[in-house]
Each structure stands twice: as structure tokens, then as C-alpha cells.
């Protein structure tokens, strides 16, 4: 029986070979399958042509980007551009989740501590 993994993007169970290698991951493979990764890369490439140059500051936290490197943030379901984020904000959003309900739970937590 082949070893499978669930893609974090399409949620499908696929053979492990359909995930690119990534030594930083516990199982040695990326969390998204190669098909989803390629689709996402194409969306980002196409959006970069439309949205132009990134601003000087992160559009989430407002801090200046280190080495002027901001990530193009987009809705993974619709492909719609949302803004330019620094690496910490982009990672945080990915971990928390792209839904307002999850973000509001953090706000509630911080307001009640």
C-alpha cells in the first residue's frame, strides 16, 4: 500500500510522491501537493503583473519590510489579491487561517487577558 498525505489546499489524500520534498517539514514533504503548489505559483505570477510594485510597508502591521521583501497575499479560494504582507504577518495569517472568525478569537483572547 502506498503512503498517502492530505494536501492542505485541496484536502485530497494523494501519494507522498505528489508532494515536493521539504526538509523543514516533519515528514520531509511540503504540506501542499505539487498540483496545488503549481496553481498557486501561477496565480501569484499573474497577480504580480496586475498589481504592480509592493509598497514600502506591510499592509497589515505597517512596519517597513526588511530588505523590501513583501509577500503578495491573495485569497486561495478566489485568487483575489488582498495586499502586501511582511513574512511574519503572512505566516501568522497562514497559521491562524484566512477567516475572520479565527482572527476574532485571537482579538477576544487578547482583550480578555
Key traits:
single chain; 4 strands; two-stranded antiparallel sheet; 3 helices
Number of strands: 4
Distance between the termini: 49 Å
Strand order of the largest sheet: 1-2
Measured as a percent range, the helix fraction is 25-40%
Taken as a percent bin, the fraction of beta residues is 5-15%
Give the radius of gyration. Answer: 16 Å
Oligomer designation: single chain
Q: Give the overall shape.
A: globular
Largest sheet: 2 strands, antiparallel
User: Count of DSSP helices?
Assistant: 3
Computed structural class: alpha+beta
Low-confidence stretches: none
What is the ordering of alpha helices and beta strands? EEHEEHH
Describe the structure.
The chain is of the alpha+beta class and 113 residues long. It has helices at 34-51, 87-96, 100-112, and strands at residues 4-6, 13-15, 71-74, 81-85. It has 3 helices and 4 strands; from the N terminus they run ββαββαα. A two-stranded antiparallel sheet has the order 1-2. It has a two-stranded antiparallel sheet with strand order 3-4. Strand 3 and strand 4 form a beta hairpin. The protein is globular. The N and C termini lie far apart (49 Å). The mean pLDDT is 90.
Strand-helix topology:
Elements: E1 4-6, E2 13-15, H1 34-51, E3 71-74, E4 81-85, H2 87-96, H3 100-112
Antiparallel strand pairs: 1-2, 3-4
